[in-house]
Amino acid sequence: MAIVDVTVIPIGTNGPSVSDYVADIQDILEGFKKEGKINYKLTPMSTIIEGELPTLLHVVQVIHEAPFQKGLHRVATNIRIDDRRDKSVQMEDKLRAVESKRSN
Hints:
The protein is of the alpha+beta class. The protein has helices at residues 19-34, 53-69, 91-101, and strands spanning 2-11, 38-42, 47-51, 74-83. The chain has a four-stranded antiparallel sheet, with helices on one face. Helix 1 runs antiparallel to helix 2. The longest helix is centred in the middle third of the chain and has 17 residues, at 53-69. The protein is globular and about 45 Å long. The two termini are 30 Å apart.
């Protein structure tokens, strides 16, 4: 199980807001989730996706293409991959591990 932090940046939009593009990408991700291929979480700055690495790389390619489908001519996509192979770790496991070590 791998975790990908991805930000798709549409360039050349009509204004500073990109929420329409983000919403389209979230709809695409929901489709992959319904197929049982990924889990994902939208954050204010990016989207976190977990699943098998080959699937995640395919998903990143699909969401990178989404703004082009709306007529844009340039898209920049940033990705970070956390691929741990000694044990199965999901997003929530990582959060619980940190919370268990807090002094509160």
